[in-house]
Design goal:
Elements (H helix, E strand, L loop, with lengths): L17 E10 L4 E11 L4 E12 L1 H18 L4 E6 L2 H7 L11 H11 L4 E6 L6 H13 L2
Parallel strand pairs: 1-4, 4-5
Antiparallel strand pairs: 1-2, 2-3
Helix pairs in contact: 1-3
């Protein structure tokens, strides 16, 4: 929560609600038919929510950001205050961590949206994982590509 007068975040007086987010995106061809998926788990690894999103004809990185953005939205909708985010896109992890610049103008609005969502959490971490550790989010992304909607 932001104090409108000081511009700083206020800590919630409620106990933190922690979760883990796995997000992924992909395109069949680059660009090509693209989809994104995300799954939100509680601390005991039980599913809180999941979603898949058809991205249209887009690039892989566009779909990766879409999966992240939808996952952050799901976390906020479920009142999560502390979040660990796992992605198999090192590019997205490094850009969201502030280590790499956004060179692609088409990704900048997605990065800006993800950063605005990131600011709404009391604590958030981004980590890169191998693709084989992100199978549930990958499956959701592929389902979106398969149904094209």
């Amino acid at each position: 929560m932001t104090d409108l007068f000081s511009g700083t975040k206020k800590k919630s007086t409620l106990p933190p609600k922690k979760a883990v987010l796995f997000a992924d995106g992909g395109a069949r061809g680059n660009p090509g038919p693209a989809g994104a998926g995300c799954i939100l788990l509680d601390e005991d690894k039980k599913m809180i929510a999941q979603d898949s999103v058809w991205c249209g004809i887009q690039t892989n990185n566009f779909a990766e950001y879409t999966g992240l953005i939808r996952g952050l939205e799901l976390a906020l909708e479920n009142k999560i205050t502390e979040l660990e985010v796992f992605l198999d896109s090192n590019l997205i992890v490094e850009q969201m961590s502030g280590n790499w610049k956004i060179k692609n103008a088409n990704l900048r609005p997605l990065w800006e949206r993800a950063c605005a969502l990131r600011e709404q959490f009391e604590a958030i971490q981004f980590a890169h994982i191998p693709r084989e550790k992100n199978t549930r989010a990958d499956r959701l992304a592929n389902q979106a590509m398969d149904r094209k909607s």
